[in-house]
Design goal:
alpha+beta, binds FE2/S2 (inorganic) cluster, 30% helix, five-stranded mixed sheet, 2 domains
């Protein structure tokens, strides 16, 4: 099968690859770019484990051909945040124990981040509806929803107050005896 040259921006890096026209985006990401945080749970568009952002919108990358992503900007879980600077949704999943085995987690987080980008203050029903295409085989839905609602309440990235300077007299003293 003749290959096709594609060029796409993934997590801020431009990649050019020769791909078969039938290659799925998820397999390009995992097998050729080594971005294995994007999971494959079904390959039939049912589970959402493969969710990434394509030009800013959440998509199931097992439903997109790599050639369809040519010229696009893709964000995977590896590009959403970093260990030193977690995305608020990642932080909220951590804080609220929004995972068990973790297999669905990257897709859940990418879907939730997309929801909060479109609707920063969703109701519980809206969170559940937005995640309806993402399945958790551990059935940890309660804490996943809790985490997304907590992320919605978290300060936006870059909005967090800077740490006070040492000795700042406006900071109340706390601790034993305070
Ligand atoms: S692997 Fe894409 S939806 Fe399940
Ligand atoms: S945490 Fe195991 S599949 Fe969701």
């Amino acid at each position: 099968m003749a290959s096709v040259r594609v060029s796409l921006d993934v997590n801020g890096t431009t990649y050019e690859r020769e791909v078969e026209p039938r290659l799925l985006l998820v397999h390009l990401l995992r097998d050729q770019l080594g971005l294995t945080g994007t999971h494959v749970g079904c390959d039939t568009s049912n589970c959402g484990a493969c969710t990434v952002h394509l030009d800013g919108a959440a998509v199931k990358s097992c439903t997109v051909l790599a050639v369809q992503a040519d010229g696009s900007k893709v964000t995977t879980i590896e590009g959403l945040g970093s260990p030193e600077d977690l995305h608020p949704v990642q932080e909220a999943f951590w804080d609220n124990h929004g995972l068990q085995c973790g297999y669905c987690t990257p897709g859940m987080i990418m879907a939730a981040a997309d929801l909060l980008a479109r609707n920063p203050d969703p109701s519980e029903a809206q969170v559940r509806e937005a995640l309806a295409g993402n399945l958790c085989r551990c059935t940890g839905y309660h804490n996943i929803v809790k985490a997304v609602l907590a992320a919605a309440k978290a300060p936006a990235r870059g909005d967090a107050a800077p740490p006070p300077p040492p000795g700042d007299p406006t900071v109340p003293v706390t601790g034993v005896g305070a």
